[in-house]
Amino acid sequence: MNEPMLKKMEAVPINSAEFFARSKTRLNFDVPPGLVDPNIVPRTGDAGNDRMLEIVAQEQPVRPAAVLIPVVDHREPTVLLTQRSPHLSSHAGQISFPGGKIDATDESPLDAALREAEEEVGLKREFIEPIGYLDLYGTAFGFRILPTVARVKPGFKLTINEGEVVDAFEVPLAFLMNPENHQVHSKEFRGMERSYYAMPFAERYIWGATAGILRVLYERIYLA
Fold first, then answer.
1. Which residue blocks in 79-189 are alpha helix, DSSP H?
2. Helix 208-221 crosses helix 16-26 at what angle (to 10 degrees)?
3. Is 4 a residue whose pLDDT tops 60?
4. Helix, strand, coil % (nearest 5) of the chain?
5. CA-based end-to-end distance of the chain
6. Residue 7: pLDDT band by 50, 70, 90 thresholds?
7. What single DSSP character describes residue 28?
């Protein structure tokens, strides 16, 4: 792992009310065709990542997935995250959003995200106000992840499904949306250099797809 770099971009400070208002204005529930079409490759703005996703799309089947970005509407908002169980076949032990693959029985990516949030941590739908889909996010494992941004009312009680996750915790939205906390690392993929984000928080190491999706959220909502 290389030494972290900070990618500087100018953000506009906003409060929680403005965050939700901007999210409602800038996001919608149109499902991007690239969620299932291997010929439409999600773009990241990083040449190495874009080339990696092109290669992955040629070699692996598309794996549609959905996650929930649960923004808890405290006075100081937080984002609810999970730590995946260590025995899982992919991304074991990593910090994630509630979510998973889209099943044939799911009516939509939103329905999949809500179902997974309830299955993994017991977050009931009556506490969740979905706002809209964020940009499609591709991974090196062939996943096409469609995140749903949602406002979550405080007062919920969680029930952890330890077969899927071992912990759920909240991180201040202000920390995650502060670009000074967005470390950029690089690694090799078949001789090419590609970058990825990391956002270490206390003893939690938030990186990979989760950090990348949070960065997309920052760029969509916080940048003017």
1. 109-121, 173-176
2. 90
3. no
4. 30, 30, 40
5. 32
6. very low
7. B
Q: Which residue has the tokens 């929680």?
A: 16
- Measured CA to CA, the distance from residue 101 to residue 122 in angstroms comes to 17
Asked whether 149 and 53 are in contact (CB, 8 A), the reply is: no
* DSSP SS3 for 2: coil
d(CA 13, CA 6): 18
**Residue found by looking up tokens 């009931």 in the block:** 124
pTM exceeds 0.85, yes or no = yes
For residue 31 the two structure tokens come to: 């499902």
Would you say how long the chain is, in residues? 224
The pLDDT tens digits for 78-111 are 999 999 876 665 655 789 999 999 999 999 999 9
16-172 topology per CATH: Nucleoside Triphosphate Pyrophosphohydrolase (3.90.79)
Look-up: residue for tokens 């077969």? 163
Domain boundaries, the chain: 16-172
Helix, coil or strand: residue 163: coil
